[in-house]
Design goal:
This protein is of the alpha/beta class. It has 11 helices and 9 strands. The N terminus is likely disordered.
Length: 368
């Protein structure tokens, strides 16, 4: 079972994790995690959410996975209690057969579409449950008004889906190239700025830089890319403002982790008694080592997520088909969803991306 909540909670639960993987390194902590590590975890919250899953399992809520948006530090015991309460209510739903969403939303407020929060990562077990509930589409053409999930099994429809997939492959490739271009120029500007500031940005300069980069991402990369696909008009002002705040936080976390590398180098250099010229050389080495992969992946993820979000809004009450790229990069569980037919309003948990670096998307079901 998967439940998604738009929430600024539970990040302190990360303080109970002894090891968190970030940027390919293992960061081992003691009882508490300092603010720098918390910033890193914000971009890698799946490890934290898995810990919550394990804690709920110990409490007797097996198979419950809860996702959150914009995690932040808080009281560990309080947040875990809130998670437990939400799980209890969801369990009660299945027992009494009534919808308790209203009560759960008082604990974790949701948004209208339920898909703008952090990425949903379906487990193999959840995918299997979805497939068991789905029905073969066969020769059916008119499935309007039904809430069932179908899967395409007709040979002609599968051929048409393959043609659609090839078109969508080009779209995803186009979006990724846009994201890569932004990341390349942005990380270059960041390194140039921080080297000019001798390895340290004050809070005002840092915040200004991040805000400028987010504006640039929207105006010169995201908006033109989505306009090109006739999707941008479906991202309204409220959506964009929420996304802008989210990107300011996410991109800021990445830039700050890069900035911390320069600060650490400065501190080590001062302790060693290095002179100005020697320090400048050490800072240049740090800059050369930063390639910006995390920023690149985050930009790809966000532009792809926003594209799918816009398409989901466009076809919110219509049937769509889940489409994967069907290559070696696709998760096995996602491959099983290829050709699944559903309505986003009824199953927002199926709207991709369904995991970090997921390139899956949706296309309208025409019924031909």
């Amino acid at each position: 079972m998967l439940y998604t909540y738009d929430s600024a909670t539970f990040m302190a639960l990360g303080s109970s994790i002894s090891t968190v993987k970030a940027s390919g390194q293992e960061l081992t902590t003691s009882r508490t995690i300092d603010r720098n590590l918390l910033r890193i975890i914000t971009g890698y919250q799946q490890e934290v959410e898995r810990w919550i899953y394990e804690q709920l399992k110990k409490m007797g809520f097996d198979g419950v996975w809860i996702k959150f948006e914009t995690p932040d530090a808080g009281d560990k015991e309080t947040e875990l209690e809130r998670v437990k309460t939400a799980a209890e209510l969801k369990q009660l739903e299945h027992t009494i057969g009534e919808d308790l969403t209203e009560y759960i939303n008082r604990i974790f407020p949701t948004n209208e579409y339920g898909i703008e929060a952090s990425i949903i990562d379906l487990t193999e077990q959840e995918v299997e449950k979805i497939l068991k509930k789905s029905k073969p589409l066969g020769e059916l053409k008119d499935i309007t008004g039904t809430k069932e999930i179908y899967y395409i099994d007709d040979e002609e429809k599968l051929k048409q889906l393959e043609l659609n997939k090839r078109k969508l492959e080009k779209v995803i490739d186009y979006l990724e190239k846009k994201a890569d271009k932004f990341a390349k120029q942005s990380i270059g500007q960041f390194k140039e700025l921080i080297l000019n500031m001798n390895g340290h940005l004050d809070d005002s300069s840092f915040n200004t830089f991040v805000q400028e980069q987010v504006e640039d991402f929207i105006l010169n990369y995201l908006a033109p890319a989505l306009n090109n696909q006739n999707i941008y008009d479906y991202i309204d002002g409220g959506d964009l403002q929420q996304l802008k705040e989210y990107w300011t936080m996410q991109f800021g976390n990445i830039y700050r982790s890069y900035s911390q590398q320069f600060i650490d180098t400065l501190q080590e250099g001062v302790q060693k008694g290095l002179g100005e010229e020697a320090l400048a050389k050490e800072l240049k080495k740090v800059a050369d080592d930063i390639k910006g992969q995390r920023l690149q992946q985050r930009a790809r993820q966000e532009i792809n997520k926003t594209y799918n979000y816009g398409r989901a809004k466009k076809f919110w009450n219509d049937r769509v088909v889940y489409v994967t790229m069907e290559d070696e990069r696709v998760r096995p569980s996602h491959k099983k969803l290829h050709g699944l037919v559903f309505v986003p309003a009824e199953h927002p948990e199926l709207v991709p991306p369904l995991g970090y670096n997921c390139r899956c998307t949706i296309t309208p079901y025409r019924g031909e």
